[in-house]
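Long-time lurker, first post. I've been practising inverse folding by hand and with some scripts of my own, and I keep getting stuck on stretches where the structure tokens seem ambiguous. Below is the full token string for one chain I'm working on. Before anyone asks, I'm not after the true native sequence, just a reasonable design that respects the backbone. If someone could post their per-position residues I'd love to compare against what I wrote down in my notebook.
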């Protein structure tokens, strides 16, 4: 397993050891003991989530304020650009973001600890994402940060239509109404 802290060191890229042969491949997608060692604390995952999204779908930036969730994200079909935004007021990287391409091919995972907003943009025709979370879904605690907030300045990848025109991200009604960073509840 290869571990790489990103520009925000608490967000960690995990690359599993993959065993390939003529039959296909095998890898360990999660090992509690190794994971606890990597992040230097014990974490209990209480829920596994899965989403299937079409190309150009942008989900996020989501977080729960009262019962924050740490997330271990991976992609089993397609490719996404996965983003974490630091919302921890006492952090030296407060308001900063990191992004990573996760795909079924590269099998990378991203650990996003509690205190971050999370979102992703689908680069492939479809993408199936799996993520383990450290707290249960709490609809009354859900918050959404605006994906294109200028104060954060996320550099989302661009996709073009068959005619070469830029594709606008496909957003849910909730994500279109995301709060600006300066008005968002933080940790």
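-- Answer (accepted) --
I ran through it position by position. Result:
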């Amino acid at each position: 397993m290869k571990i790489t802290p990103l520009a925000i060191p608490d967000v960690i890229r995990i690359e599993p050891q993959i065993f390939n042969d003529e039959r296909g491949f095998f890898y360990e997608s999660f090992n509690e003991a190794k994971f606890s060692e990597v992040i230097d604390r014990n974490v209990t995952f209480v829920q596994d989530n899965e989403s299937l999204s079409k190309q150009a779908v942008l989900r996020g930036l989501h977080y729960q304020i009262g019962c924050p969730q740490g997330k271990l994200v991976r992609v089993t079909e397609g490719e996404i650009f996965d983003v974490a935004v630091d919302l921890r007021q006492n952090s030296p990287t407060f308001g900063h973001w990191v992004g990573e391409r996760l795909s079924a091919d590269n099998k990378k995972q991203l650990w996003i600890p509690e205190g971050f907003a999370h979102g992703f943009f689908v680069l492939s025709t479809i993408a199936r994402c799996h993520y383990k979370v450290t707290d249960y879904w709490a609809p009354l605690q859900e918050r959404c940060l605006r994906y294109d907030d200028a104060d954060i300045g996320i550099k989302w990848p661009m996709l073009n239509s068959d005619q070469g025109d830029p594709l606008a991200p496909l957003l849910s009604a909730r994500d279109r109404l995301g709060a600006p960073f300066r008005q968002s509840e933080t940790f």
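A couple of notes from the structure itself: The CA atoms of residues 24 and 74 lie 19 Å apart. Residues 32-39 form the longest helix (8 residues). Happy to go over any region you disagree with.
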